[in-house]
Amino acid sequence: MTLGSHVISSVTTTELHYEYLRTIGRNSFLGSHGSGGTFTVYVVETNRGATGWGLPLYDGNPAALVGRKLAELIDPEQGVIDPVAEFLDYPLHDLAARILDVPVYAMLGAAAEPRVRCYSGGIYFDDLDGGIDAIRANLAQDHAFGFRDFKLKIGRGHRWMPPADGLRRDIEVTRLARELYPEAAILVDGNDGFTVNGLFEYLDAVADCELYWIEEPFPERRPDLQALRERLQAAAPGTKVADGEYDPNVEHVLALARDGLVDVALMDVVGHGLTAWRHTMPRLRAEASPHAWGLPLKTLYAAHLAAGLGNVPIVEGVPGRTLGTGDYTLDDGHVILSDRPGFGLTLP
């Protein structure tokens, strides 16, 4: 069946619930991230009874889509093609793939395998409340959930501890993770909470930990990233620089990647959007790993993007569940995508 025979008959919303495995604590800027909550998804139905659903990119005008031909809104080979429908990027991809009876990653091109490496993004500053044993417990819990690689929040000295004490704790947590999980990829994320000199002191102290990447150590200033590149080339040439998550200037990030200063672009999977990623990826002279923190559903979106477009070596996992949907399945550190149509989820 083609999209041309379908007309949008309704656009509605519903609330879903999600739960983390535990209460997620602070990072270098923000307080506790809580233990879960609710979020809104849009449900799009056609006159032929097909339904797709998903997260919106932003608030839009659903009434403007009712009565429109689906083929005027989304092209399976390009993504959303009418700006008025852009806010329903994910619901429309889900709907189109369901009508075509293929998974979203297949509609995107199936450039990579539907088994996508996935790290835990949930190791925050819980040691500030529960001591270093809280980090040990969180790592063990995420490992039991199925993760084999871990991203550690660092930058405790930016807000929550005196700078020297925070730096020592960052180093202690990094070394603990490497000691407990010697085979894991260890990623670290500063949330723009470091100075250049502070970051270099940290890197010197964990040089033997073989970090997989350093994420957002400071704002994307070209001279600072150039200094970081030179430092890594001398001391840790295998460590990548990941950036572009927080309020990104996408063209600036693309230019930094083109010049070899950013190795992994992080524009948010929902904030940037699936259609935008489909157009951005061919222009990107680096790897990608769309930021997916917050909702477990975003991890599934990132995995479909990775399997569909390729050039994504690892995605961010949210340790938790979207209740009732089926969510995503982890196997030995990998998201296993189903061959069900669309994103493969059931709407509760």
Question: How would you portray this structure in words?
Answer:
With 348 residues, this protein is α/β, with parallel strands linked by helices. The chain has two domains: 3-102, Enolase-like, N-terminal domain (Enolase-like, domain 1, 2-Layer Sandwich), CATH 3.30.390; 115-336, Enolase-like C-terminal domain (TIM Barrel, Alpha-Beta Barrel). The chain is built from ten helices and 16 strands. It has helices spanning 89-100, 104-108, 127-130, 132-145, 163-180, 196-205, 222-235, 250-258, 274-280, 296-309, and strands at 8-24, 34-46, 51-54, 74-75, 79-80, 115-123, 150-153, 186-189, 213-215, 240-243, 264-265, 287-288, 315-317, 320-322, 329-331, 334-336. Strands 6, 7, 8, 9, 10, 11, 12, 13, 15 and 16 form a ten-stranded mixed β-sheet that branches. Strand 8, helix 6 and strand 9 (213-215) form a beta-alpha-beta unit. Helix 4 packs parallel to helix 5 and helix 5 runs parallel beside helix 6. The chain is globular. The mean pLDDT is 96. Keywords: Magnesium, Metal-binding. It holds the Pfam family MR_MLE_C.
**Poorly predicted spans:** none
Query: What is the overall shape?
Result: globular
Count the E strands: 16
The Rg value, from CA coordinates, equals 20 Å
The ordered H/E elements are: EEEEEHHEHHEHEHEHEHEHEHEEEE
Pfam family, one: MR_MLE_C
Keywords: Magnesium, Metal-binding
Cofactor: Mg(2+)
InterPro entries: Enolase-like_C_sf, Enolase-like_N, Enolase_C-like, Mandel_Rmase/mucon_lact_enz_CS, Mandelate_racemase_C, RHMD-like
